[in-house]
Amino acid sequence: MKKAMLVRAFVVVLFLSFAALARSETALTPSCGACLHIRVGLAHMVRGPAADIADNRFTEIELPGGGFRGFDAHGQTTAIDGKTPLDMGGPGRIVLTPGAPGSYSACGQWLNHAERIGATVLGFVHTETACDYAAGQTHKSMALATSTDDGLTWRSLGQFITGTDLPTPGRNTGEGDCTAVDGRDGYLYAYCFRPRDSGLIVARAPSGDPSPRNWRKYFQGGWDQPGLGGNATRLMAGAGASIARWNLVFREIDVEPRRSADAPQVVEMLARWFDPVHRDRWPTTAPVPAPYRQDGQTGYLSTSPLPTTDSVELEDCDSDRSGHREHLLAEKGFCEAHGYRRLRTAGWAYAKPRSNTVPVYRCYDATEKSHFASNEPNCEGLGENERLLGYALSTM
After folding, report:
1. Residues sharing a CB contact under 8 Å with residue 258, sequence separation 6 or more, in sequence order
2. Is the dihedral of CA 264, 198, 212, 231 positive or negative?
3. For residue 31, what pLDDT band results from cuts at 50, 70 and 90?
4. Taking a C-beta distance cutoff of 8 angstroms, is the pair 384, 363 a contact?
5. Average pLDDT over residues 21-27
6. How many Å apart are CA 27 and CA 194, to the nearest integer?
7. How does pLDDT run across 203-234, given as a tens digit for each residue?
8. How far apart, in whole angstroms, are the C-alpha atoms of residue 314 and residue 373?
9. Which of 88, 79, 89, 104 has the alpha carbon at shortest distance from 160?
């Protein structure tokens, strides 16, 4: 889930703003998200594609005896053990299931976040009831649970976030899908999705006693609305998606101060992948499934047009006309004009060289009938140079 990881970086930005707000208790002011550089690294596809995994946030804890335990949720929650944080491809065991008919968790329990507090693990559990997914209907809330065996069994503490609306035929209602973070300022924060206005909201509780009764939502400059049934200020638009097949993807994300206003705020690694079966090299910023394996890194592309400078929008495209699937990185408009399918915007590159940039060339291997990208004008001896596409960032 590439998006899950991007959300995690995004929550860091929001947390910095609200932690400062919590300490000062002043009115909400614009965040300093624009003061940060966010660098999104290589995508590691760990599980999938499949229809019954990664339907929500993925969370992990470090085990006392070594190793890590991750929690994958799709109506029910499974625990997966691995030697490293990325080693989450093994079998899972079910640790949370839907609740009793008519209960607030009758349609499922998704463990969104696990926070270790001493010998206990505190679980933030997304719950749903009154669901008719075919009709686009469910009612969301959040509950807390504790575990004393590192997440293999859980004891429910009850709901701590509910909305102001009721289950409604043909609509998504309630509040849930929360991502939690320890503010290190005496509070735990939960950033939640509210379907009725597609909004992101926030609630907090003292980290020393985050029991359900202690959660308060942020509303119109204060933290005085109860987590259960209280109102909340819409911070910004949230996100939702309906996807038939899911992947679990890990990406390394670095956050650091932004050095200049004309530097891109968010960049994403442009990597090259190679399919040894079909002899295809794929330059992309997106996650790539097997049998593709990493074949190099070509720099970082901005996720939005570059500020105060000319930039080139590059597209990720493919075609089957060579007798096999072939991928192409090209400037916007090229793909559809030349018989390729546009898959996505890969990102924006600089039109001219500047410090900390590397050239990106479009190359062609006539033997394999496959395009690829390279930083070298000789295309690393793998093919012929067709054109210079632009300049990617080599470092931040």
Report:
1. 34, 35, 36, 37, 265
2. positive
3. low
4. yes
5. 37
6. 22
7. 999 999 999 999 999 999 999 999 999 999 99
8. 12
9. 104
Question: CA-CA distance, 363 to 348, in Å (whole number)?
Answer: 19
Residues 131-159 have pLDDT tens digits of 999 999 999 999 999 999 999 999 999 99
Whether the Cβ atoms of residue 80 and residue 145 lie closer than 8 Å to each other: no
The beta strand positions in 148-292, using DSSP E, are: 155-161, 172-174, 176-182, 187-194, 199-206, 216-219, 222-226, 236-237, 246-257, 266-275, 280-284
Please give the single-letter amino acid code of residue 335: C
Q: Residue 26 above 70 pLDDT?
A: no
Which has more pLDDT, 213 or 118?
213
d(CA 254, CA 243): 28
In angstroms, the first-to-last Cα distance of the chain is: 25
Return left, alpha or beta for 349; rule: phi > 0 is left, psi -120 to 50 is alpha, else beta. Answer: beta
The residue written with tokens 């004009």 in the block is 337
- Contact predicate 181/15, CB 8 Å: yes
> In the predicted model, is pLDDT for residue 8 greater than 90?
no
Domain-wise residue ranges, the chain:
2-237, 260-393
How far apart are alpha carbons 33 and 14 in whole angstroms? 7
Instruction: Give domain 2-237's CATH architecture.
Output: 5 Propeller (2.115)
DSSP string across 337-383: HTTPEEEEEEEEEESS--TTEEEEEEEEETTTTEEEEESSTTGGGSS
User: What DSSP designation does 16 have?
Assistant: H
Q: What is the DSSP letter of 332?
A: T
- Considering the chain, what percentage of its residues have pLDDT values greater than 90? 72
Place of tokens 């590439």: 2
Give tens-digit pLDDT for 77-95: 999 999 999 999 999 999 9
Amino acid at 46: V
Q: Which of 394, 392, 365, 395 is nearest to 380 (CA)?
A: 365
Q: How far apart are alpha carbons 305 and 299 in whole angstroms?
A: 16
